[in-house]
């Protein structure tokens, strides 16, 4: 009886674990909100960078 239980346990749990190990890792799709968030962060970064550059030009060239 215990051998049968071990066999069932292996088929149900260990067998699934082996099949999961063999399967390649699936990439998660980026959602629309994540794309908007990345775009927003890039735009904000560029605006800040442009502001710093223009401020430097005013300080250095506007004597």
UniProtKB/TrEMBL annotation:
Organism per entry: Streptococcus lactarius
Matching InterPro entries: Asp4 (IPR031551)
Source species, domain of life: Bacteria
Lineage: Bacteria, Bacillati, Bacillota, Bacilli, Lactobacillales
Transmembrane segments: 38-60
Protein name: Accessory secretory protein Asp4
Keyword list, A-Z: Membrane, Transmembrane, Transmembrane helix
């Amino acid at each position: 009886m215990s051998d049968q239980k071990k066999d069932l346990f292996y088929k149900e749990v260990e067998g699934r674990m082996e099949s999961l190990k063999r399967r390649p890792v699936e990439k998660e799709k980026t959602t629309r909100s994540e794309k908007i968030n990345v775009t927003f962060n890039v735009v904000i970064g560029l605006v800040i960078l442009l502001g710093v550059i223009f401020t430097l030009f005013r300080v250095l060239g506007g004597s």
